[in-house]
Write a structure and sequence with these properties.
Radius of gyration: 20 Å
Helix content: 40-55%
């Protein structure tokens, strides 16, 4: 999968793969990516029989959204079979929970490569999205991001992270600051795309979701995991440059281009000091806006 496609992926919407009605509806929500879940949302007794439902659902769905399956953790008895039985041309990627080391990625990549080959796919064509959601994972984030794997971006799971550390996850999300910073730094060190921010568990609190998404964006995240239909348009909006941001970015680039042509590499615009880092940031905003416009 191309990085251009992934860079324009703002909302990742989960649905339990064993719930037919929710699976049917999830493709109608306007999410950039759909994640059919085999892990937390599926009871142990139904995990094995649900794999086939993932394949059936993705085969029947259109490809307006990316298709992901969240498999069970690599340390469970289900992970390898989850991969073997769900990988095929109908899939765009695999979400791997509770990743804590590069060794886990390497093992899962071997299973993925075997499944891709068995399905007649190009080995390495599927995205692998690791969720970092424990203290060990956060501390190993840089090693995971720089492991030289097929991984193009990381995701953050705040629920299991705060459970692991027995943190109190309040509305201000102060306890998530360290982890968000670690994932942003790790992503930059690994030259990955901006990471995907955590879910918000309060499904009827749009204000809290927006605030959480905006915090994630401030920390360099480029999208958000969603668990309720109402969250999808909110995530898309927060992680889409606003008209004001785009207009300002265009003004910065245009003014700087003119100044640079006259031999100057620093200017003032509307009370702001503008030099190369500010210009590069503006160019990044315009590039993302262009990618998102192309998706419409």
């Amino acid at each position: 999968m191309s990085e251009r496609v992934l860079a324009a992926t703002r909302s990742f919407m989960f649905a339990p793969a064993n719930h037919p009605r929710r699976v049917e509806k999830v493709f109608e929500l306007g999410a950039d990516a759909i994640i059919l879940d085999l892990e937390d949302a599926v009871a142990i007794a139904e995990k094995e029989m649900t794999r086939g439902k993932v394949v059936e659902a993705f085969k029947a769905a259109d490809r307006r959204a990316l298709h992901y399956v969240r498999v069970n953790g690599a340390d469970t008895q289900y992970c390898q079979e989850d991969i073997q039985q769900t990988v095929g041309a109908w899939l765009d990627g695999v979400v791997l929970p509770k990743v804590e080391s590069p060794d886990v990625l390497r093992q899962v990549e071997r299973w993925l490569a075997e499944a891709e080959a068995a399905a007649g796919m190009i080995v390495g064509s599927l995205d692998l999205l690791p969720i970092i959601e424990t203290a060990a994972g956060v501390e190993s984030a840089a090693a995971i991001a720089t492991a030289g794997s097929r991984v193009k971006r990381l995701a953050f799971g705040g629920g299991d992270y705060t459970l692991d550390l027995d943190y109190l996850w309040s509305a201000d999300e102060e306890v998530l600051q360290y982890a968000r910073a670690r994932l942003s730094h790790a992503s930059r060190l690994g030259d990955l795309l901006p990471p995907v921010d955590t879910v918000v568990l309060q499904i009827n609190d749009n204000e809290r979701f927006i605030a959480s998404a905006e915090r994630g964006r401030k920390y360099g995240f480029g999208g958000k995991l969603c668990i309720h239909p109402s969250q999808v348009p909110l995530a898309n909006e927060v992680f889409t440059p606003s008209e004001e941001e785009i207009a300002h970015a265009r003004a910065v680039v245009a003014a700087f281009d003119e100044a640079e042509s006259q031999g100057s590499a620093s200017i003032q615009l509307d009370g702001y000091f503008i030099d190369y880092p500010i210009v590069y940031k503006s160019q990044r905003i315009l590039a993302l806006a262009s990618l998102l416009e192309a998706k419409r």
